[in-house]
Amino acid sequence: MQQYGHFARTAVSTIIEKGDFMAIYINEESRVFRLVTENSEYQLHADELGVLRHLWYGKKVDTDMSYLLDYPDVGFSGNPYDAGDKRTYSLNTQPLEYPCEGVGDFRVSAVSVVHSDGSNALDLRYKGHKLSKGKYSISGLPAVYADDSDAETLEIFLRDTSTETEVTLRYGVISKYDIITRSAFVKNCGDSPIKIEKAASLCLDIPHGEWEWVHFHGRHAMERLMERVPLFHGVQEISSSRGTSSHQQNPSVILCSPDCTEQNGECIGAFFMYSGGFKIQTEFEQMDQVRLVMGLDPETFEWTLENNETFETPEAVMTFSANGFAKMSHNFHKIIRENVCRGKYQLAERPVLINNWEATYFDFNEKKILKIAKSAAKLGVDMLVLDDGWFGKRNSDTSGLGDWFVNENKLKGGLSMLADKINDLGMKLGIWFEPEMVSEDSHLYRAHPDWAIAIPDRKPMRGRFQLVLDMSRREVQDYLFIAISNILDNANISYIKWDMNRSISDLYSHALPAERQGELSHRYILGLYSLLERLIQKYPNVLFEGCSGGGGRFDAGMLYYCPQIWCSDDTDAFERTKIQYGTSFIYPISAVGSHVSVVPNHQTGRITPLETRAVTAMAGSFGYELDLGLLTDEEKTAVADQIRRFKNFDTLIHNGSYYRLTNPMNGNRAFWSYVSDDRSEALVHGMIYHVPANMKRSALRLSGLDENSLYSISGTKETYSGAALMNGGILLPMPWGDYTPVEIHLKKVK
């Protein structure tokens, strides 16, 4: 049955007066819900059977889109019993908001529950809804936050037809950024326990259009490489069962029209605000419809709910763009910068830092560190970060993790004295931690071997010669909180690099009963988040930077606690253009930790010019990872100029609109730009990879400028219209030598 009618702003009277909602519209008669943002519309419908169907996600339409859902009797697609003789109505063909296992939808499901009798069927039907101002939160998990004036929440209440299992679907709408968030809330209202085997945060059924799939794959030191492929009939998936969001697949995905480019075409982007195992599946099914499901990795997850217990899924965040990838990215960048990241450094300028790792590795003492610091201070560096090796018996990666006390054989007088000396140079001090790990050769492991994740009577799998602490245990969290606090309370530390250098295997907790071992992976992440929240609340002036062997846990969940994350252990400027290109589709530049490294590069052996390394590293929170004292006088002068330029451009780089001007995955160049919100200023950065003989002059088309204004090029007398620069382009300088850097600064003159 099709139902149509005029949409009215309505709400439950006990929540707020009718007419106060600006983004959520409900037709109470037809039970069609519209979530409307500035440039998009999302529709869902509780039909006559109470089945919650998805109708539309795309451009604003202001019409009940259920008229498009007209299906034949599809063979081997069964019908709900209460559909009677309507053989054209099947859960196996209808676009659904939260599809369940066991009730005739044979496509990828969003939720699976095992009941006390062993059955796993779940038939969720609409029971009601609730509207509220502001954005919902999720207990113990990161989530987009917003003021009541900027966001609205819709809750849809569903109940199983035969058991006491209830599911609440929550939708957050941040209209100005074209953002819709999703989360599910499962409750056991029955007397017998139930076991959740799968609980996705997002299901998006798209009954219309042609779509391609974009994801970001990679490996350690080569993360988030963009790959775009056509959908084939069947299931495509990306996932991580590693206990982290992983180097191999990022928890984000894009569906785009075949003609989608940076500036044109339709695309839907989604990211998972979670730092552990995940699975994202896209099914292109028999009716040529597309289903996207995003949530926890079901292979490493199960959760038991006793009577009146609840489970909340992590948050999925999505956006629609009718104007290509650039608009999608801008939506994501804004929501992450302004509504995910928190604290003192959320939008503030970040310190330019120098990290000692590639300069010294484990072989350092106070004298070496101070020498590096003195050289850096003279050139304008703001902070020295002391990397791995300052604690316990840590002279290699085989010992010491867990013993978070200063090794005074290396640092006489401890961190406090070192911090004072660094501060006297006009610099701040930061330090490296790897709190989630433990070495077998450590005081901590000898005292508490059961704190390590390992299966009884099996030799554990080692990674980097270390084991993983059971972060699900409160006593482990408390130990780390006290140990880290002792360091921060007794020395003037301004920055923490939070590292994690292995995947999690051998899943077993000595603190969980046998029937709940499947909860460990998720409990681990909840414990990690709990510890981070305690620390950032106690130390609001400390800048936390996430890291996991570089980019192994580069996700929005970590950005809720750490406003920047080390992008990749690959510090080679050439390869970083590809890594940072893929990263930029979802994550803002302010979230990217990026450094100028030594040459020959320690990962590739490649030699790139110092200025090329700087231009590349400026696409992030800028710093250096080398001994500046070993540079020539000419190089030191160049470094001082790089730091001065970065600080001058810092606000533009971190808070401006980012544009990908070329695709470095194919072609001979990588270019990108930053444009201020008022379009009065733009900065173009990039490099030309290789120079052939007799190379012709080439032009680069810019984006984001005011086409009716004139722009001057800094350092020249040249002036061009925005229209000319965006349609004709700007001539690039003739390169000389491989990996030629380019920097062009434009300012509006009228």
Overall CATH class of the domain at 83-339:
Mainly Beta
CATH architectural category of the domain at 83-339: Distorted Sandwich
* Count of DSSP-assigned helices: 12
**Could you describe the largest sheet, including whether it forms a barrel?**
10 strands, antiparallel
Structure summary, number of beta strands: 38
> What is the overall shape?
globular
Multimer state: single chain
Residues in helices, as a percent range: 10-25%
| Average pLDDT metric | 95
| Termini Cα gap | 58 Å
| Residues in β-strands, percent | 25-35%
- What is the third-level CATH name, the topology of the domain at 83-339? Beta-galactosidase, Chain A, domain 5
Structural class: alpha+beta
Low-confidence stretches: 1-18
The whole-angstrom Rg is 27 Å
- CATH level-four homologous superfamily name of the domain at 83-339: alpha-galactosidase from lactobacil brevis
Please describe what this structure looks like.
The chain is an alpha+beta fold and 750 residues long. Among the domains are: 83-339, alpha-galactosidase from lactobacil brevis (Beta-galactosidase, Chain A, domain 5), CATH 2.70.98; 669-748, Sandwich (Immunoglobulin-like), CATH 2.60.40.1180. Strands 6, 7, 8, 9, 11, 12, 14, 15, 19 and 20 form a 10-stranded antiparallel β-sheet that branches. An 8-stranded parallel barrel has the order 21-22-23-26-27-28-29-30, surrounded by 5 helices. Helix 6 (474-489) packs parallel to helix 7, helix 9 (573-584) packs parallel to helix 10 (610-617) and helix 10 (610-617) packs parallel to helix 11. The longest helix is centred in the C-terminal third of the chain and has 23 residues, at 633-655. The termini are far apart.
